DNA sequence: AATGTAGTCAACCGCAGGCAT
DNA sequence: CATGCCTGCGGTTGACTACAT
């Protein structure tokens, strides 16, 4: 990355340098972040003399310089997680990225575009998905029965105790409804991405797994790894439910998963259910 | 070996939301 | 309350690389 960048035509606009970063610039930025921490990107140029906009600095840091970045190819496990989370959330790359420690939204976005946008997921993924959907289907019918037996079909929005946050996945036509409460400590997808082995634990959560995207991702991951015994759950794999984009948006807003992911990534308990 | 094509990656742009003034 | 600035996000673009013909 040394030497003058070739591309991007304009190299300086309004006093800001554009185009590829030089190692010198990288050094300055890294040093700045080390001293002042992340944020306040607009002040970087003033402090360091870097002729880069705050936006550009932030992007460079987030996508390339951050020390916790995982370099190298997306693993099949990560791939499967991406597929699932995309089915759930659509193009919310930053949200998906939060479930994959060391990966950036940009990376995932690029990966998705090149691998899936053209409609050709790997065989690996197709297999996993098929298995996943089958399991989910079985789960669903089981659960449906259980709920009916318990007279637990939920159509309530104003719900019980104020403390426990309860999320109601209403309106979901073919999926029925479910109420999931705080009891479940969702396994960290971070661990999944890192290759953790909590398969058995997961199965114990199957009651909560209904429509639990984090668990789904993890279970799918297990399936990909070759186990395939994981019970699951409320996926919204796009080809099953139609428009992944819309579903993704809908689900995202339903679940407000940001906090969950953060907790999961930090190894803490899932605060959503 | 040369050329064309597809894949990958890094960086830019515009927009929206949040926050401080 | 209105305005402006900052940050973050998603979409897009362009250069580089690998592979195929």
From TrEMBL:
Annotated keywords:
DNA-binding, Nucleus, Repeat, Transcription, Transcription regulation
Q: Which GO terms describe its cellular component?
A: nucleus
Gene3D superfamilies named among the record's database cross-references? Homeodomain-like
SMART domains noted in UniProt: SANT (SM00717)
Bilayer-crossing residues are none
**A GO term (biological process) for this protein?**
regulation of DNA-templated transcription
- Where in the numbering of this chain does the Myb-like domain appear? 17-65, 66-116
Q: Which Pfam families match?
A: Myb_DNA-binding (PF00249)
What is the protein's major site of localization? Answer: nucleus
> Taxonomically, which superkingdom?
Eukaryota
Compartment(s) of residence: Nucleus
One Gene Ontology molecular-function label? DNA-binding transcription factor activity
Which residue numbers delimit the HTH myb-type domain?
17-65, 66-120
Q: What is the name listed in the Swiss-Prot or TrEMBL entry for this protein?
A: Uncharacterized protein
Q: Which organism is it from?
A: Setaria italica (Foxtail millet)
């Amino acid at each position: 990355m040394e030497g003058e960048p070739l591309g991007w035509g304009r190299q300086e606009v309004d006093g800001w340098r554009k185009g590829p970063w030089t190692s010198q610039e990288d050094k300055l930025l890294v040093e700045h972040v080390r001293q002042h921490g992340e944020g306040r990107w607009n002040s970087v140029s003033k402090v360091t003399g870097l002729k880069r906009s705050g936006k550009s600095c932030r992007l460079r840091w987030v996508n390339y310089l951050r020390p916790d970045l995982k370099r190298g190819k997306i693993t099949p496990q990560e791939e499967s997680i991406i597929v699932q989370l995309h089915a759930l959330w659509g193009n919310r790359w930053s949200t998906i990225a939060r479930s994959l420690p060391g990966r950036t939204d940009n990376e995932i976005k690029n990966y998705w575009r090149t691998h899936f946008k053209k409609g050709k997921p790997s065989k690996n993924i197709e297999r996993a998905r098929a298995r996943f959907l089958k399991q989910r289907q079985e789960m669903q019918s089981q659960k449906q029965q259980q709920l009916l037996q318990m007279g637990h079909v939920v159509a309530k929005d104003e719900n019980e105790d104020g403390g426990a946050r309860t999320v109601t996945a209403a309106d979901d036509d073919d999926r029925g409804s479910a109420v999931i409460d705080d009891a479940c400590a969702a396994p960290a997808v971070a661990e999944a991405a890192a290759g953790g082995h909590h398969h058995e634990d997961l199965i114990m959560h199957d009651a909560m797994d209904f429509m639990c995207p984090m668990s789904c991702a993890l279970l799918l991951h297990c399936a990909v790894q070759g186990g395939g015994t994981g019970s699951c759950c409320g996926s919204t794999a796009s080809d099953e439910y139609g428009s992944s984009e819309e579903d993704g948006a809908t689900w995202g807003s339903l679940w407000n998963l940001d906090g969950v992911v953060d907790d999961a990534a930090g190894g803490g308990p899932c605060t959503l259910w």
